[in-house]
């Protein structure tokens, strides 16, 4: 026992002395992957070790999360998860291959961001109140697209529906945000939540109208666009967030070192500006305890929302 404790202490003291691997549960080339690689470059400078991004997409991020949960608890394999990984999946899947509260240990949050609500240019509305009134006046006549069932795009619109007398607007799930946006531009869809970057590009060409952002703060890509809360739905704040975790059993000393490294990384001004202009998100570090609290709160919210809309993915 004493020998094992000494070895563990020695390992923590020498950490890190080899490359760090960050598992991203999304495909290479996507928005999450691009952000992870940029953060990884700065983190590598802080830790003075190479940082390798390992993409393991699939099953709503469960494949990547499960891979990390089953990795050696030595601090060299990290999970870059999001609120789907840490909270929403517990509500959407009855049989989840990992437990976000017991298979993994939080290190730090990374960023918080919002989606934006847009409509086709032909829809005669210019703000959220007008949108809600228009949907109520045209029940079952409008449809909204998402990046798929259970995605933030889907759950945010369902939350907006519930908080506004169960708006009668039809959901059409797509295989990703891009195809849905194409149909919004083409008029096959009337509305959708999407990332600010893709919406901004179409809005500048006059193809869609961006009405509002879903978060507490305005989106940095579209700072002129109000939040939904500013637009009259004061209690509506729905954001996505990303965070780092490690396998359960990882020594607290190593988690503390990783937490300090991410705190220093996320304070980098150039990285902060890059994230703001690329995704509109806000870099935001936390303590492991704060991230744990965030996960617990989001699990409660996710289960409440998913129960209300009657959604299950298995």
Give an overview in words.
This protein has 2 domains: 2-112 and 241-309, D-Maltodextrin-Binding Protein, domain 2, CATH 3.40.190; 116-213, Periplasmic binding protein-like II (D-Maltodextrin-Binding Protein, domain 2), CATH 3.40.190.10. The chain has helices spanning 2-13, 31-47, 62-69, 83-92, 128-137, 152-162, 177-186, 196-204, 252-266, 269-279, 288-309, and strands at 20-24, 51-55, 77-82, 104-113, 116-120, 143-146, 170-173, 191-194, 208-213, 240-247, 282-283. It has a 6-stranded mixed sheet, with helices on both faces. A 5-stranded mixed sheet has the order 7-6-8-5-9. It is 43% helix and 19% strand. The protein is an alpha/beta fold and 314 residues long.
Describe what is shown at a glance.
With 314 residues, the protein is an alpha/beta fold. Helix content is 43%, strand content 19%. The model has no long low-confidence stretch (mean pLDDT 94).
